[in-house]
Amino acid sequence: KMSKSKGNTIIIFQSDKALKKQIMSIETDSTPLEDPKDPDTCNVFGIYKLLASKDEVAQMRKNYEAGGYGYGHAKKALYELVLNTFEKERALFTIIWKILMNLMLP
Q1: Distances from the Cα of 96 to the Cα of 19, 82, 92, 104, angstroms
Q2: How far apart are CA 79 and CA 50, in angstroms?
Q3: How far is Cα 2 from Cα 76, in angstroms, rounded to an integer?
Q4: Which pTM does this prediction carry?
Q5: Which residues of 86-95 are buried (b: 16+ CB within 10 A; e: fewer)?
Q6: What are phi and psi for residue 69, nearest 5 degrees?
Q7: Which terminal Cβ of the chain has fewer Cβ within 10 Å, N or C?
Q8: What is the distance between the alpha carbons of residues 86 and 18, in angstroms, rounded to a whole number?
Q9: pLDDT (tens place) for every residue of the chain, 106 residues total
Q10: CA distances (Å), 93 to each of 8, 11, 14, 79, 99, in order?
């Protein structure tokens, strides 16, 4: 669960570094790395399944339930999925942003 004081949205158009920091800060429980985890109670998995294919979701569920898969692994997978899913939109946003910034310069 993401802290309410930080907001509860992932800003996909921020820099890669800021996006990664935001995703890596998603709150998770303290289940040890080696223990199985319940994907249905995990916010990282909840977001992941909104963007991933059925096969990717099934594999992630297996990873959680098998143990030996930490929340850090899941957060990195979510980060990569967000980058891949919104690659074109993020590139277009960057171009438009640069154009707008150039127009605003005196």
Answers
A1: 19, 20, 6, 12
A2: 13
A3: 16
A4: 0.88
A5: beeebeeeee
A6: -130, 115
A7: C
A8: 15
A9: 445 555 678 999 999 999 999 999 999 999 999 999 999 999 999 999 999 999 999 999 999 999 999 999 999 999 999 999 999 999 999 999 999 988 887 6
A10: 22, 12, 10, 18, 10
